TrEMBL record:
Pfam families: MIX23. PANTHER family: COILED-COIL DOMAIN-CONTAINING PROTEIN 58, PROTEIN MIX23. Belongs to the MIX23 family. GO terms for cellular component: mitochondrial intermembrane space. This is Caffeine-induced death protein Cid2. InterPro entries: MIX23, MIX23_fungal.
Length: 193
């Protein structure tokens, strides 16, 4: 899959957001191609042949993580600017759009009539908790906008965790002292997003 396909946003429509499986699959695929394989992506940026092979490097087993060589800053910045941040921004755009859909009225809700019928039936119900202590139970169906809002909230939490983990590795290998939020905001400002 090309880098452009990894960061390309799907067609943002309410139907895309309400198809929770499709939304989850997009987020999962985007995360798996960039964030879940961040160590491999960063290793691919290394050019070991630039310095040549040092036979003494095999004399001692290297188990200390501090002996890792950092990546060329220009290469690292290119990776962040062209792959990592666009991927993060695309996922942020999708989640922001879907959050907007979740907070908007939904005139096309297919379960609206069914939910209204259930509420009417519940209002007519006679509750006698002395005879049946469970008769007061009523579990209304959740509107699809509420379900979408919960999904977006959960995915934003997942996104924060994944970005922190990914940025920890990027900061270690590239020597970037900024937080991921600051680095992403700086990239957004430089790209007028």
């Amino acid at each position: 899959m090309s880098e452009a396909a990894l960061t390309e946003a799907p067609a943002l429509t309410p139907q895309f957001c309400f198809n929770e499986k499709l939304l989850r699959d997009f987020l999962r695929l985007s995360r798996s191609t960039i964030d879940d394989s961040i160590a491999q992506n960063l290793n691919a940026l290394m050019t070991p042949a630039r310095q040549g092979f040092d036979p003494s490097s095999t004399a001692v087993r290297q188990i200390d993580s501090n002996t890792r060589k950092s990546i060329d800053p220009t290469t690292c910045q290119g990776f962040k600017d062209n792959v990592l941040f666009p991927s993060w921004q695309t996922r942020s755009d999708v989640l922001t759009y879907c959050a907007g859909v979740a907070t908007s009225p939904d005139p096309d809700d297919p379960d609206l009539i069914l939910r209204e019928t259930e509420f009417a039936r519940d209002r007519e119900r006679v509750v006698n908790e002395r005879l049946d202590p469970y008769s007061a139970r009523f579990f209304p169906r959740e509107a699809r906008t509420e379900s979408l809002a919960n999904l977006v909230r959960n995915q934003r939490t997942v996104e924060d965790i994944i970005r922190a983990r990914t940025w920890g590795m990027v900061a270690e290998r590239c020597g970037d002292p900024a937080s991921w939020e600051d680095a992403l905001n700086n990239w957004r400002h430089s790209n007028q997003r």
